[in-house]
Specification:
31% of the residues lie in helices and 20% in strands. It is α+β, with helices and mostly antiparallel strands and 168 residues long.
Length: 168
């Protein structure tokens, strides 16, 4: 087994008290929290993370579970309300990416991945990239983001989570 796989397994199979302490600490933090480095470096690198200027990692908290359907206020039969059988189209991961892009409007979402969850919240980490940073413009692998067609990627469903939604 390679070192990378072993590191990923130790992260996934952490002791339950350690995970609970991690979630308790995360609950006290803001909804979108900027991080120094990713919690899962291998997953972040697979999505294109590099430890350089212009790339930021943020942790996003999203309410777990189903979402309530917006209720109508007049002019319909109560039986047509459909409160119990409401399945929203967006995944929680896509909602998290949109939250991150709204919090940091000058950056674009490259991708995101799951980092934890409990009965109340689910946490994702998103990789944000600054389109106008000189280090990004010089990087041959990352300068595709500087093109105007990549503005608002998360809102338009151009990240991996958004593309999954479109192909269902």
């Amino acid at each position: 087994m390679t070192l990378a796989k072993r590191l990923e397994q130790t992260w996934k199979n952490a002791a339950k008290p350690a995970i609970q302490e991690r979630h308790i600490a995360w609950r006290r933090q803001p909804v979108v929290m900027r991080l120094e480095s990713p919690s899962r470096p291998l997953r972040a690198r697979a999505l294109g993370y590099k430890a350089k200027q212009g790339i930021t990692v943020v942790r996003i908290r999203v309410k777990a579970g189903g979402r309530t359907r917006p209720s109508f206020h007049a002019g319909r039969k109560p039986s047509k309300r459909g409160r119990l059988t409401y399945y929203p189209k967006k995944s929680l991961q896509m909602v998290a990416e949109e939250k991150a892009s709204r919090k940091h409007p000058n950056m674009e979402v490259m991708g995101s991945y799951w980092v934890g969850g409990d009965s109340i919240n689910t946490w994702y980490e998103a990789l944000l990239i600054d389109r106008v940073h000189p280090a990004i413009k010089k990087d041959a692998q990352l300068k595709w983001v500087t093109q105007g067609t990549h503005k608002g990627r998360a809102a338009r469903g151009l990240t991996a989570a958004g593309k999954k939604l479109k192909h269902q």
